[in-house]
């Protein structure tokens, strides 16, 4: 978590749309649980996402779609940073049989 906080401090231009992993939370880092609305999304959405490798390989396979993307960066060997484009999100959504991403409706 400390490494992720350091990474965020070095990249202030990045605003995460989702952060998902387990562990101790530094005082500045906002961590959301799987029970929060759409975080990390089990359906691909465009934006910046930081997700622990354990979340990608567990949680009933809900986040395995990240395996089809190239990480933007890896922090502390276990937290993967992704920037998902709208094209990437729609390609993965099509493959999953989900509706196309609609930026106006955020779905």
Summarize the structure.
The chain has 107 residues and is an alpha+beta fold.
What structural keywords apply?
107 residues; alpha+beta; 4-stranded mixed sheet; globular
Describe this structure in words.
The protein has 107 residues and is an alpha+beta fold. The chain has one domain (2-96). It is 23% helix and 19% strand. It has helices at residues 2-10, 53-57, 86-96; strands spanning 16-20, 47-52, 73-75, 79-84. It has a 4-stranded mixed sheet with strand order 1-2-4-3. The longest helix has 11 residues, at 86-96. The model is unreliable at 23-39 (pLDDT under 50).
**Cα distance, first to last residue?**
29 Å
Largest sheet: 4 strands, mixed
- List segments where confidence is low: pLDDT < 50 over at least 5 consecutive residues: 23-39
Number of helices: 3
Give the strand line-up of the largest sheet.
1-2-4-3
Q: What share of residues is helical?
A: 10-25%
Radius of gyration: 13 Å
In total, how many domains does the architecture comprise?
Answer: 1
- Whole-number average pLDDT? 79
Beta-strand segment tally: 4
Secondary-structure-based class equals alpha+beta
Secondary-structure element pattern, one letter each:
HEEHEEH
Proportion of residues in extended strands: 15-25%
What would the principal axes of the Cα set say about the shape? globular
Chain-wise SSE layout:
Elements: H1 2-10, E1 16-20, E2 47-52, H2 53-57, E3 73-75, E4 79-84, H3 86-96
Parallel strand pairs: 1-2
Antiparallel strand pairs: 2-4, 3-4
């Amino acid at each position: 978590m400390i490494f992720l906080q350091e990474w965020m401090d070095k990249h202030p231009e990045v605003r995460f749309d989702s952060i998902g992993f387990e562990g101790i939370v530094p005082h500045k880092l906002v961590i959301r649980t799987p029970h929060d609305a759409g975080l990390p999304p089990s359906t691909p959405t465009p934006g910046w996402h930081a997700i622990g490798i354990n979340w990608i390989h567990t949680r009933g396979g809900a986040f395995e779609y990240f395996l089809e993307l190239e990480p933007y960066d890896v922090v502390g060997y276990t937290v993967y940073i992704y920037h998902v484009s709208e094209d990437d999100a729609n390609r993965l959504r099509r493959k999953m049989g989900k509706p196309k991403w609609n930026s106006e409706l955020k779905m």
